[in-house]
Amino acid sequence: xxxxxxxxxxxxxxxxxxxxxxxxxxxxxxxxxxxxxxxxxxxxxxxxxxxxxxxxxxxxxxxxxxxxxxxxxxxxxxxxxxxxxxxxxxxxxxxxxxxxxxxxxxxxxxxxxxxxxxxxxxxxxxxxxxxxxxxxxxxxxxxxxxxxxxxxxxxxxxxxxxxxxxxxxxxxxxxxxxxxxxxxxxxxxxxxxxxxxxxxxxxxxxxxxxxxxxxxxxxxxxxxxxxxxxxxxxxxxxxxxxxxxxxxxxxxxxxxxxxxxxxxxxxxxxxxxxxxxxxxxxxxxxxxxxxxxxxxxxxx
Length: 300
Known about the structure:
Elements lengths: L56 E5 L4 H12 L3 E6 L4 H12 L5 E5 L5 H15 L4 E4 L15 H22 L8 E5 L12 H21 L5 E7 L5 H7 L24 H8 L10 E4 L7
Parallel strand pairs: 1-2, 1-4, 2-3, 4-5, 5-6, 6-7
Helix pairs in contact: 1-2, 1-7, 3-4, 4-5
């Protein structure tokens, strides 16, 4: 891949062409970027900051890999101090991400733990406030996705864990963080095109993303009274470890993302600028919105 992909005008259909690349059919759960084949682009070599978030203080869940890593790299290069959260099984990726951020000269802190546990969500915010002093950007990004083809095979345990990870944690974390967020702060939730165009086999995931969409719009109308904006980003098919570690059936991986008009999956690096925009004061008149980054598989 060309390290200048994001800055050179070119045909977006071939910007990240993976059509002739060998795909691993799967990897163990949890998925790790270091095992991902083909590799993903998180903007490690390409993202160039412009001090758009200088002095800001951000918390990012699921910051070890995929979209979370790309957002963390972009935030750091824009000048924000960052607290990353990820699972203990994801520490290899997390440490790599932390190193990329430190190279930007900002303060970086990591806390390991499972956000599907309410008590840990409170610990996460206490940790962030202790390290950063306050929080003015909150990115609720971490999520769980497992493909299950038949309803009879979808367990109550998985359904409940998906909602605890994807939805309940968002409530717990945001409720704890809001008192520490000054006027002008921004909350950005990661929803999905699955909220609008759900796939068979992703019943728990797609419905949890629909809940996040509604949560975002309602919360925005509540928190604007405190001067806090709340928006969401809805990715389309993005190439992350989530896809190889149970998020898609192995036989679909080689065709992953080819069904959108652009004809290819997106890369995490292509999401990061949208999060930067929503975090920055440039989006001052935007709240209660869902911004699609879908390769043409548009939102309603």
